[in-house]
């Protein structure tokens, strides 16, 4: 397979996600109509990587099944918990399964749905331009508690990544954090990952130890700054999931308004990622557009409307209604208080 992007992207998706307190695996919780892992797949797809490798806990589990359906070219690797655990162990499992991967290898998480493909492309480009052994994606955190801190020398070079619980008071005051997302020289990674120490009694091996190992070997460690801290935030609980939905929805709403769609009240309008809106459409307050909904130019949707997998023709009006898998012809009027749930066609000018 030819590629202009990195040699490989490793996506870590074996975490248990117990803090979500849901039966659904953490990375399969949806944000604006798409699983968190699906958002990561979409970002990675922009890179034209030679290989995509997904680390899962069970090759027959729900996460593996989702990957098979939504990213069929991905290689699945099972991380079995046999005394060791953690991000370092996950990457070591990949190397033991796939062997060394020459070229640039990115490592990302499955619970970062706000991460943009352009950010990953910039990370890979800066890594290759600097000829570093490893490049860490950093960000300035408004509240860095819980994140590994980036420690630099007087020349500004990265000398260490210190986990929050291991940091001194002075180090905790550092606002620049490690996102945990890295670009590696694949051959050097294959050697260094074998030397990651067990960090605690739980048997965890941290990938953040690899930059220190490579630096001790005399190799340069680089960094790339992500200017939008939201992009690198992982989702670990329901509150963070809700906030992430809000941030992504704000992006989507802003994008559609910039494209010529009138959105009367952005704060009460929710739009899924696969929704399509034509310039000139008007979306009223308290409206939800879900699934593969399409709204044509001149159509007026809302207020108080839910459309799911619905096509609305040009100039049509839908008011205070719920429509699911419906095709509404141009000029038709639906509502108020309609509930259409089967594939029927509203005739032009007819109320339903």
- What is the level 1 CATH name of the largest domain? Alpha Beta
Radius of gyration: 23 Å
The name of the CATH architecture of the largest domain is: Alpha-Beta Complex
What is the residue-averaged pLDDT?
A: 92
User: Uncertain regions: pLDDT < 50 for 5+ in a row?
Assistant: none
Q: Which shape, going by the Cα principal axes?
A: elongated
> How helix-rich are the residues, as a percent range?
10-25%
The SS-based structural class is: alpha/beta
Kindly report the CATH topology of the largest domain.
Spore Coat Polysaccharide Biosynthesis Protein SpsA, Chain A
Beta-strand share of residues? 25-35%
In this structure, how is the largest beta sheet organized? 7 strands, mixed
Distance between the termini: 53 Å
Description:
The protein has 352 residues and is of the alpha/beta class. It has two domains: 225 residues, Spore Coat Polysaccharide Biosynthesis Protein SpsA, Chain A; 88 residues, UDP N-Acetylglucosamine Acyltransferase, domain 1 (3 Solenoid). The protein has eight helices and 26 strands. The strands form six sheets. Strands 5-4-1-6-10-7-11 form a seven-stranded mixed β-sheet, with helices on both faces. Strand 2 and strand 3 form a beta hairpin. It is elongated, with a radius of gyration of 23 Å. The mean pLDDT is 92.
């Amino acid at each position: 397979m030819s590629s202009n992007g990195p040699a490989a992207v490793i996506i870590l998706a074996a975490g248990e996600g117990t803090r979500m307190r849901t039966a659904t695996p953490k990375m399969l919780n949806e944000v604006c109509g798409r699983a968190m892992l699906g958002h990561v797949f979409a970002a990675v797809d922009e890179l034209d990587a030679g290989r995509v490798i997904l680390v899962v806990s069970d090759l027959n589990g729900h996460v593996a099944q989702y990957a098979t359906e939504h990213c069929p070219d991905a290689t699945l690797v099972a991380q079995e918990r046999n005394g060791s655990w953690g991000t370092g162990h996950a990457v070591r499992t990949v190397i033991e399964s796939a062997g060394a991967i020459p070229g640039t290898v990115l490592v990302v998480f499955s619970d970062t749905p706000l991460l943009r493909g352009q950010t990953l492309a910039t990370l890979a480009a800066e890594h290759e331009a600097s000829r570093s052994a490893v490049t860490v994606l950093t960000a300035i955190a408004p509240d860095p508690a819980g994140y590994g801190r980036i420690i630099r020398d007087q020349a500004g070079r990265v000398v260490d990544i210190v986990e929050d619980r291991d940091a001194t008071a002075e180090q905790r005051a550092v606002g620049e954090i490690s996102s945990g997302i890295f670009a590696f020289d694949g051959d050097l990674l294959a050697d260094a990952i074998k030397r990651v120490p067990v960090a605690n009694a739980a048997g965890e091996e941290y990938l953040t130890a690899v930059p220190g190992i490579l630096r001790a070997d005399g190799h340069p460690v680089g960094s790339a700054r992500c200017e939008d801290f939201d992009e690198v935030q992982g989702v670990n609980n329901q509150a963070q999931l809700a906030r992430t939905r809000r941030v992504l929805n704000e992006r989507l709403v802003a994008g559609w308004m910039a494209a010529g769609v009138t959105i009367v009240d952005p704060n009460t309008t929710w739009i899924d990622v696969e929704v399509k809106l034509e310039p000139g459409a008007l979306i009223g307050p308290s409206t939800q557009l879900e699934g593969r909904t399409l709204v044509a130019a001149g159509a007026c949707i809302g207020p108080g409307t839910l459309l799911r997998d619905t096509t609305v023709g040009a100039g049509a009006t839908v008011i205070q209604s719920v429509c699911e898998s419906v095709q509404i012809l141009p000029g038709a009027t639906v509502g108020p208080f309609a509930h259409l749930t089967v594939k029927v066609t509203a005739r032009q000018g007819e109320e339903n």
